[in-house]
Amino acid sequence: MDSKGVNHYIEAAKRAIAWQKLQLEQMRACRFDTIAVHGIYSMQEALDFNQGSVIEPIYMSSSQAYHDSDEMEAALGYQIPTWCYSRIANPSMYYLEGVLSLLEGYGSGEETSCIATSSGMSAIASAVDPFLLSDPKRPGAKMNFVATCQLYGGTFQQFAVRKEKEKNIEWRRVVHSNEINEWESRIDENTRFLYGEMPSNPSQGFFDLEKVVQLGRKYGLPVIIDSTVATPALLRPLQYGADIVVQSVTKSLATSGFAIAGAVISRKNLKLNIDNDELKADFAGYLKLLPNRDNGPNISPMNAVLALNDIRTIRSRMDLVSRSTLKVAEFLSTHKHIEQVDYLGIPQHPLHDLAKQYMFLVDSEFDQQYGEKVNRFGHLMSFRVKGGRNETRMVFDAFERIYRATDLGRIKSIATIPAISTHSQQGEEARKIADIPDNLIRLCVGGEHPDDIIRDLDQALSTLDGVKKSYSSPEFSAGGASSSRLQF
Ligand SMILES: *Cc1c(COP(=O)(O)O)cnc(C)c1O
Q1: Co-location of 189 and 291 in the same domain
Q2: 30: in domain
Q3: Which residue among 124, 228, 253 has the greatest number of ligand 1 atoms within 8 angstroms of its CB, and so is best to mutate?
Q4: Pair type for strands 403-404 and 414-416
Q5: pLDDT digits (tens, 9 = 90+) for 243-291
Q6: Residue 461 Cα, ligand 1 centroid: separation in angstroms?
Q7: CA–CA gap between residue 380 and residue 442 (Å, rounded)
Q8: 173/304 same-domain check
Q9: CATH code, 306
Q10: Is 293 found in the same domain as 323?
């Protein structure tokens, strides 16, 4: 048999890339919901390559076969698109990356790309590590990065222990993230990136992103935003000029709770003060083909499709849960046993006006129900119980519908006490700076009817009056005979 030659495959790849580009352009012209539902999987792809399968097929295979040595050579030399080996890429991962890339880029007019990772934490490590390289022009200089201190507990540990303590990379903390001078005062010639979470988990920190982006531009530094709490349905940092977004896809995006997943989404052609053209041209693509290929933190195909399936309804879900959370927050803010409610959606919150400038239900102006841009603030809130640690635990332990778990973004309501769970490792001093006291309960309101969640909160708070208004039947309550069978 005559060899087809490497060029045969390169030419075929060119046609495939042109076709894909057209598909992407058509998808970009669609509204958010259509993109969330269809992603980058088209009817033509279904009919021509996937036996008509309406839903994206699941490719569990570890690797891809090639027709001949020419195709293999072209593929492994990255001369043609390939998925070769599932540590690097795989069609099921590709569908997830495609939809997230389009959703985060929605409305920005920018070309974006995405790499899906095994968790939110690995997305964060993937996003920041390539910038933490020593500068040959400044041998011995101590590197630093500037990041808010209101962060998810896992991120706090990654920055404080893995970077600062173990690698001697200084985390310059921004305590008042809304004071732009504080950010700027932390930057020097050894700063590698600017990082923030908006809104922050759990304390609802928020800052003026456009101003932080201006600082990034001024100093040629990447602005990296963890936008897990908002999801692209409510906030898309790339639209405001952020360079890189990280998502814990595990949370609201994959709301069913079947998967742990993360993602890094970036704009193309980053204007940065660093000497790496490949990285700047397509950051997520660079991660995929190089550092993450070698470090191996990418997502598994099964987790990718589980996440993909939940993402289809993200817009209407975030609308529903945001409205429910507002109702719950309003109930709690007038309750006699509640000291404070932290939710960006209530006017009493000091950052409410700022959040209003950034957090909108995407496409609400095209929604028959609304016909205008409406603010939505997501389903993460927290509240502080009057009294202290003991009262807080009494209320927490009395929940009958709301699950006690260290999780959020679920379709089921879940609460935790961050001081003894997600934020326990960082210690009291750091919790104080991040404003996470012992009497704070983080609540993420799910898709239940809000009246039922309010009823559960009301009965749990009633334990502080000494009369518990329990509504579950006694034989099924915790510790009862029928539930002890399930205990281990
Ligand atoms: C949960 C979370 C993470 C970490 O994500 P995992 O998927 O659990 O690794 C990062 N950032 C925020 C804001 C989170 O809530």
Answers
A1: yes
A2: no
A3: 228
A4: parallel
A5: 999 999 999 999 999 999 999 999 999 999 999 999 999 999 999 999 9
A6: 29
A7: 7
A8: yes
A9: 3.40.640.10
A10: no
Cα-to-chain-centroid distance, residue 294: 23
268, part of any domain: yes
For residue 227, being part of any structural domain is answered with yes
Which of 311, 329, 357 is a domain's end point? Answer: 311
pTM over 0.85: yes
Strand-pairing partners, residue 191, are 144
Cα 42 to ligand 1 centre (Å): 31
CATH number at residue 392: 3.90.1150.10
Written as six digits, the tokens of 210 are 């456009």
* Minimum CA distance residue for ligand 1 atom 4: 120
Which of 159, 195, 200, 201 to mutate for ligand 1's pocket (most ligand atoms within 8 Å of CB)?
201
Nearby residues of 133 by Cβ (< 8 Å), 6 or more positions away: none
> 375: which DSSP letter?
B
Kindly write down the DSSP assignment for every residue of 229-274, as one continuous string.
TT-TTT--GGGGT-SEEEEETTTTTTTTS----EEEEEEBS---SS
- For residue 461, give its domain range: 314-476
Beta strands of 44-120 (E only): which ranges?
A: 112-117
Residues 158 and 123 in one domain: yes
Instruction: Indicate if 371 and 302 belong to the same structural domain.
Output: no
318 and 254: one domain?
A: no
Which neighbouring-strand residues pair with 223?
A: 194
| Residue carrying the six token digits 């990718």 | 304
Rounded CA separation 204/358 (Å): 14
Rounded CA separation 352/103 (Å): 25
Segment 311-354, tens digit of pLDDT: 999 999 999 999 999 999 999 999 999 999 999 999 999 999 99
pLDDT tens sequence across 417-447: 999 988 888 788 888 887 889 999 999 999 9
- Boundary-marking domain end, from 272, 293, 311: 311
Q: How far apart are the first and last CA of the chain?
A: 64
Residues 419, 319 within the same domain: yes
Identify the CA nearest to 413 among candidates 424, 404, 422, 421.
404
